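Running low. Invent one:
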Amino acid sequence: MKYKLNLNVIGVVAVLAVAFIGCDGKDAKPYTTFTDTRDGKVYKTIEIGGQTWFAENLNYAAEGSKCYENKNANCAKYGRLYDWTTAMNACPAGFHLSSDEEWTTLVNYAGGAEKAGTKLKSSKDWKSFKGVNGVPAGTDDYGFSALPGGIRLVFEDIDFGGAGIWGFWWSTGSDDDNASNREMFYKSEEVEWGFNDKTKLYSVRCVEDGSGSAQNAAPTQQDNTGSAQTTSASVSDPDFPKDGAVTGARSRASIQGVVMRNKAALRYAYNRRVRDKPGLAGTITVKFTIDEYGKVIFAQVVESTMDDSELENTVVTRIKGWVFEKIDKSGDVTEVVYPLVFSRE
């Protein structure tokens, strides 16, 4: 799912200029620059795998965003931290918050999730960046220059934490309470895929509207954290699966829309289980009922080829939390049978 919401910046004019300055990365193309006319800040941008990214974290002072430890110097160094809702609308006109698919394309282009962190990290400003426990320094091969801007945890004892150690970046996938993100850690070469509370404050990377597509990338191996698909026709396509069923007043299209909005949470649950069971794949067919107010009042697994009770229980729990549109059909209860296909292909 890809969002292009720039509701706060209608009428803003983007200014682009070419900057023939070298990147740290050996394979990087020349940077261009972009001027955000909302505040005059100039950002480096870089084309990687057919996509044009900000080559630094966003530093636009949207309402509710924060500098790490409330220090302006940290904003200048790492950019600002945003909750997910603010992040969705924070990028300037012509750019948008990076989607799960765009992150997957980037990570695959950089060699896959297990090693891409090293290639995407800045070669400076990470704790022990010269290597710790055998982990090499960031090499910044493509000019992405990922920096460890830390996080803010609103509901936990720690307020700010992790600058110089962690980098967390929001992406667009979400359910009602949580949203997807990518993570890098100073001791790891990986790019991790996460799904966290929308109220936490993370960094933002913007991607140019309409730039690139999956076919422009040159993936060398699977993105082990982000591209493991909870997909078949049932999740990845806009159409309701042919082997599913609906009885009641609700349309298949409306049900499929809710499934698509919640696919990131299902993908995250599957990815977590794949870490423990690498060969895990198959179909979980669920039956659930929706009342006239849009609440899921019943859900259960009716058939599964997965033989994984933990994943099956998680899927049921997620579905029970889905919210559908209220319909004007008093007493209607819509019953849905829906096959979810989980595969790494």
In short: The two ends are 19 Å apart (CA to CA). Helices lie at 72-78, 84-88, 100-109, 113-120, 233-236, 252-261, 263-276, 309-320.
